[in-house]
Amino acid sequence: MKFELVQLPYATDALSPVIGKQTVECHHGKHLQTYVNNLNNLIAGTDLEDAPLETIVKKATGAVFNNAGQVLNHNLYFTQFSPNGGGRPSGKLSAAIESSFGSFEEFRGAFESAGATLFGSGWVWLASDGQGKLSIAKEPNAGNPATTGLKPLLGFDVWEHAYYLDYQNRRADHLKDLWGIVDWKAVEARY
Ligand code: MN
C-alpha cells in the first residue's frame, strides 16, 4: 500500500494565529511528507507492504514504527482542527468526558497538564477503550494509543516543530490555545 499525504480540510493560513501558515506548510508539507516518503520506502518489498496503516503501527518496531506512527498521528492531528472550531463536544462524547474526568473543564486541564509535562518530543492523546471508557495517554516520540489496543480520538503534537515558529518555548500557552480550533464534530466521529 502506497501511502499519501493527507489532504488538509482547510487553507494553510486558516488556523492562524494558533497554528500559523508557515508552521502548517512546514509541518504538513515537509515533516509529514517526509514521514510518508520514509514509510513507503521502508515497507516496499516487505510483508508490511500491503498492510493498513494501523496494522503497521501495531506490528512494526524501529524506523518502520517511527514513520508509520507519525503518519497515523499526523493524519489524525491535521483532520481534527477547523477555523470554525472550539466550543465543547456534545452527545455521547460529552457524557463520557464528564463521567471520566468530572467535567469538560477538568478534562481540558488534565490534558493540557499531560502535554506540558511530557519531557521531550511526543503526543498527548484522548483515547477510548472497547467499552467507550476514556483516558489520557502521554506518548513519547511517535507513540499512539493504538499500540495498546485503544482508539485515538484527539491528539496534540508536542514536538517543537508543531509550535516553535508560533509560540517558541511557550508550549503550555500553545496547548491552551489549541482548544479554540478543535473540530469536535470530527473528534466525535472517531468515538
Ligand atoms: Mn508533528
What is the N-to-C succession of helices and strands?
Answer: HHHHHEEEHHH
Work out the helix count.
Answer: 8
Tally the beta strands: 3
**Kindly, what is the distance between the CA atoms of the first and last residues, rounded to a whole number of angstroms?**
26 Å
Low-confidence stretches: none
CATH class of the largest domain: Alpha Beta
Number of spatially distinct domains: 2
CATH superfamily of the largest domain: Iron/manganese superoxide dismutase, C-terminal domain
Structural class: mainly alpha
Oligomer: single chain
Shape: globular
Instruction: Give a list of the ligands.
Output: manganese (II) ion
Helical amount? 40-55%
Major sheet attributes: 3 strands, antiparallel
Summarize the structure.
With 191 residues, this protein is mostly helical. It contains eight helices and three strands. It has two domains: 21-78, Fe,Mn superoxide dismutase (SOD) domain (Helix Hairpins, Orthogonal Bundle); 91-190, Iron/manganese superoxide dismutase, C-terminal domain (minor pseudopilin epsh fold), CATH 3.55.40.
Write the layout of secondary structure elements.
Layout: H1 21-43, H2 53-59, H3 62-78, H4 91-101, H5 104-117, E1 122-128, E2 134-140, E3 151-157, H6 164-167, H7 171-178, H8 184-188
Antiparallel strand pairs: 1-2, 1-3
The structure holds manganese (II) ion (MN).
